[in-house]
């Protein structure tokens, strides 16, 4: 890895730590990818809402997603409210039915490519705001 990448990686870690507990989860040497989990601490102890994934390639490419730890909704009204919260945002939702006796859906956010650390920060801030609204829906 070059020195420029190490500088970017250090800057990324400093900026991401502002949003919560940061954990380097994977270093994939085959595709030069680093994966971080950030615990946004929206609801203490509820990793399904709190954890988001940030990926950085050694070429400086950045990706934000919520795939490793999705969250579940059980009621049609909850699903509709989650859709309305994310409507118009830059994020897509992947909704997958979970086989159970009662209707249940796992919701994940596919990767979104970002060009700069500033874009990443803005998107993390927006995602945290949206997930905070979702947490209130799921509590009710």
Protein architecture, described:
There is one protein chain. By secondary structure, the chain is of the alpha+beta class. The chain is 38% helix and 34% strand. The protein contains four helices and six strands; from the N terminus they run H-E-E-H-E-E-H-E-E-H. The chain has helices at 3-17, 47-50, 76-86, 117-139; strands spanning 21-28, 33-39, 51-57, 62-73, 94-97, 105-114. Strands 1-2-3-4-6-5 form a six-stranded antiparallel β-sheet. Strand 3 and strand 4 (62-73) form a beta hairpin. The longest helix has 23 residues, at 117-139. The radius of gyration is 16 Å and the shape is elongated. The protein starts with a helix and ends with a helix. The model has no long low-confidence stretch (mean pLDDT 86).
Q: Quick summary of this structure?
A:
With 140 residues, the chain is an alpha+beta fold. The chain has 4 helices and 6 strands, in the order H-E-E-H-E-E-H-E-E-H.
Distance between the termini: 48 Å
Strand count, sense and closure of the main sheet? 6 strands, antiparallel
Number of extended strands: 6
Identify the overall geometry. elongated
Q: Are there runs of 5+ residues with pLDDT below 50, and where?
A: none
The overall pLDDT, averaged over residues, is 86
Helix content: 25-40%
Number of helices: 4
Backbone structural class? alpha+beta
What is the subunit organization of this protein? single chain
- Rg of Cα set: 16 Å
The sequence of SSEs as H and E is HEEHEEHEEH
Q: What proportion strand?
A: 25-35%
Strand order of the largest sheet: 1-2-3-4-6-5
């Amino acid at each position: 890895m070059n020195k420029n990448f190490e500088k970017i990686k250090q800057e990324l870690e400093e900026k991401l730590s502002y949003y919560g507990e940061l954990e380097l989860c994977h270093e994939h040497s085959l595709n030069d990818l680093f994966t971080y989990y950030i615990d946004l601490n929206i609801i203490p102890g509820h990793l399904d809402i709190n954890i988001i994934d940030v990926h950085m390639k050694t070429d400086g490419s950045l990706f934000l997603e919520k795939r490793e730890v999705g969250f579940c909704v059980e009621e049609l009204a909850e699903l509709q409210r989650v859709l309305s919260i994310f409507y118009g945002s830059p994020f897509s939702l992947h909704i997958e039915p979970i086989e159970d006796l009662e209707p249940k859906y796992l919701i994940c956010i596919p990767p979104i490519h970002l060009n700069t650390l500033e874009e990443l920060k803005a998107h993390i801030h927006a995602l945290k705001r949206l997930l905070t609204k979702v947490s209130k829906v799921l509590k009710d």
